[in-house]
Specification:
The protein is of the alpha/beta class and 453 residues long. It has 14 helices and 17 strands. The structure holds zinc ion.
Length: 453
């Protein structure tokens, strides 16, 4: 049995059903659960005590969309200042060289930055399986997640519609549909854990309407529902995508999803920007991963977050792939979500509390989980501790506003996943930070140089 007592917490924001916020409070964690929240909790001699005076404590952030391999492809000069479609076609040429080793190290980089910035659960959307690379790339991500100690929802992404079939990606990075479905089933059987406090789950995630066939969407839907796993894809991200869907299918992106039954509590979409009023209502009960940095960098548009929340759509926040962000800093993403929401809605904008809720409990709801995202007795001990004793916050009169709008010091004092401390003051506890950094950078340079020749 292991136990940790977080003592003298200045502010603990629970995001429970009563929206409770505590001052000067302790939290006791035993094994992987929160056991008590209260004043002056007494603990055994052997319990580790962490002084949290001057700190805000939240449930760990939940990142609802990422492409971890893209951490190796940041700042590629050939694709800067480009919108989504030319950005993608430029990057496919580099991405086609990825290897299982690159996928492992790319995942380690992304997980590291997520943990350092308060994220305790992340998803990933890996859809790139270049010919001759083998199909076991997601296994490498799952291995990395388990080694570093982050809660991980891997999605089995896919692309089946190459250029010769009218899609966007080159034929060298797409797969046959039976191969995709076979590997999807293998991953679910091997790794998906639907129990409470699961550390690893699998979802199925055909990449987007412009890179898979409708038939693969339908077959993925059937397999996911037969196996009881969730569905995920990119949707309504750009006007180029909308044009593609109208020309190919005679339907707008959301209409296409409706026509094949890809709507509901077991589905979440990345982006959901270009929606009309009817489509926002159609998405009620489904989930959306809002990716503000990516949407700004690729000039995709602004997600209608306030309207989605108002209409009962589940909204989480996400860093998206690092090549369009270019970071995996979840804390920074919360700040950008808040600012972008205010750019669009002004006085109707969401509060700091609402945006932080979106990044924690909101993300957990998107992923269909009620065991994480809340600080409450019996919930998973996924906790982020933010130390506000820094010059960046001096003079701020509200700790939640401080977290969201004062900029940030980038790393948490402590990030705990499933009762284990994964990061302290920016240092990862389970891996050698420096060797991961140097090895990942070496692999990234090798791949990029291979393409440039
Ligand atoms: Zn994405």
């Amino acid at each position: 049995m292991s136990s940790i007592l977080l003592k003298n917490i200045s502010t603990a924001v629970t995001f429970d059903n009563k929206d409770r916020i505590y001052q000067d409070i302790d939290i006791l964690v035993v094994d992987n659960q929160i056991i008590a929240i209260g004043k002056d909790i007494k603990a055994e001699e052997s319990t580790e005590k962490v002084d949290c005076s001057g700190c805000v404590v939240l449930p760990g952030f939940v990142n609802t969309h990422h492409h971890l391999y893209q951490t190796l492809f940041r700042g590629i000069k050939e694709v800067q200042e480009k919108p989504l479609f030319p950005w993608l076609t430029g990057l496919y040429e580099f991405w086609k060289h990825i290897t299982p080793e690159a996928v492992y190290y790319g995942a380690m980089l992304g997980f590291s930055e997520l943990l350092r910035t308060g994220c305790t659960t992340t998803t990933d959307h890996h859809y790139l399986f270049p010919k001759n690379t083998g199909v076991n790339l997601i296994d490498e991500q799952l291995r990395a997640a388990s080694e570093i100690g982050i809660r991980f929802h891997a999605t089995r992404g896919s692309m089946s519609l190459g250029r010769s079939g009218g899609g966007l990606p080159p034929d060298s990075v797409v797969q046959k549909e039976d191969e995709i479905l076979k590997d999807s089933e293998r991953l679910i059987n091997k790794y998906h854990d639907n129990k409470k406090f699961a550390m690893q789950r699998i979802a199925l995630a055909p990449c987007s309407p412009f890179s898979v066939s409708k038939s693969l969407m339908v077959q993925s839907r059937d397999l996911a529902r037969k196996k009881g796993v969730m569905l995920h894809t990119h949707l309504a991200e750009t006007l180029d995508e909308e044009k593609f869907c109208v020309e190919k299918y005679g339907k707008r992106p959301v209409e296409l999803m409706e026509s094949i039954g890809w709507i509901g509590s077991d589905v979440w979409f990345a982006h959901a920007i270009h929606l009309n009023d009817r489509e926002i209502k159609v998405l009620r009960g489904s989930g959306v991963a809002h990716c503000p940095s990516s949407n700004m960098k690729l000039s995709s548009g602004i997600c209608p977050t306030s309207e989605l929340v108002k209409q009962g759509v589940k909204v989480g926040i996400a860093v998206d792939g690092s090549a369009s962000n270019d970071g995996s800093n979840m804390w920074e993403e919360v700040r950008r979500a808040y600012l972008l929401n205010h750019l669009k809605y002004g006085t109707e904008g969401l509060s700091a509390y609402q945006v932080l809720r979106m990044a924690t409990r909101g993300g957990a709801e998107v992923l269909g989980r009620d065991d994480i995202g809340v600080l409450e007795k019996g919930k998973a001990a996924d906790i982020a501790v933010f130390d506000l004793k820094d010059i960046a916050y001096a003079g701020c009169h509200d700790p939640l506003v401080a977290l969201v709008t004062c900029g940030n010091t980038s790393v948490t004092k402590l990030t705990m996943v499933n009762g284990k401390v994964a990061a302290r003051n920016g240092e990862l506890m389970t891996i050698n930070n420096e060797s991961i950094r140097t090895e990942a950078h070496k692999i990234a340079s090798g791949i990029v140089n291979k393409e440039r020749g």
